[in-house]
Amino acid sequence: MSIAVAKTRDKLIDVARQLFARIGVENTTMNDIAMASEKGRRTLYTYFNNKTEIYNAVIESELNLLYRSLETVTHKNLPADEKLLEFILIRLESIKNVVFRNGTLRADFFRDIWRVENVRKSFDLREIACIRSILEDGIRQGIFDIPDSHKMAVVLHHAFKGLEVPYIRGTMPGFTSSDKSGVNNIINLLYNGIKRTE
Fold first, then answer.
1. Which of 28, 39, 142, 170 is most deeply packed, by most CB within 10 A?
2. SS3 state of residue 78
3. In the 8-state DSSP scheme, what is residue 90?
4. What single string gives the DSSP state of each residue in 115-156?
5. What integer pLDDT is reported at residue 149 of this predicted model?
6. What is the sign of the dihedral through the CA atoms of 186, 87, 109 and 172?
7. How many CB atoms lie within 10 A of CB 190?
8. pLDDT at 192
């Protein structure tokens, strides 16, 4: 894909995102996107066959931003337990910011989670790879004792996904970005279960 083609596609996606955020996906037409982008319907239909395709591209674009922030944490030179803590904080805050930045898309996120789920399959696989990398760092550093880093990465990924909606909605008392002890408690629970350590 040439730079000009990529720029046009990115502009169409960003214009669509802004319209979806302002007036909602259902209320936005392909014509609205074409007019707002000043590219015309023919150009829009060159890149996207319908509104579902452009909606999926918007979600994918937002997930790519999230992934880049997670990848940055993954490559930090930190002990693995600290890195995992930062990964969780960045992940939850970033996804909350994505949802709130997109206005009425927020309602779609909660109402039509399965549509979003379909688009995030690629992101999920990349996130699992990041978590596994952190876990394997921890095994090498003698911090984690995990027999199967891939299985644990999948479990943690699903645990983090399960925290998304309550975190975004603010329905988890004592578990906010300013309260690292809450995150530490979650990590301890995930690693150690409820078993009391002597």
1. 28
2. coil
3. H
4. HHHHHTHHHHHHHHHHHHHHHHHHHHTTS---S-HHHHHHHH
5. 93
6. positive
7. 15
8. 61
Report residue 14's pLDDT band, with 50, 70 and 90 as the boundaries.
very high
* Spacing of C-alpha 196 from chain mean position: 33
pTM above 0.90, yes or no: no
Residues 43-60: tens digit of each pLDDT: 999 999 999 999 889 888
Phi-psi region of 142 (alpha: psi -120 to 50; beta: other; left: phi over 0): left
Q: Which residue has the tokens 């004792």?
A: 145
Q: What is the pLDDT of residue 86?
A: 87
**CB proximity list for 110: less than 8 A, separation 6 or greater:** 165
Both tokens of 37, joined, read 């982008």
pLDDT at 24: 83
State percent of the chain over pLDDT 90: 40
Asked whether the beta carbons of 141 and 79 are under 8 A apart, the reply is: yes
CB crowding 46-79: b at 16 or more within 10 Å, else e? ebbeebeebbbbbbebbbeebbebbeebbeeeee
String of DSSP letters for 25-92? TTT--HHHHHHHHTS-HHHHHHH-SSHHHHHHHHHHHHHHHHHHHHHHHHTSSS-HHHHHHHHHHHHH
Give phi and psi for 114, each to the nearest 5.
-70, -30
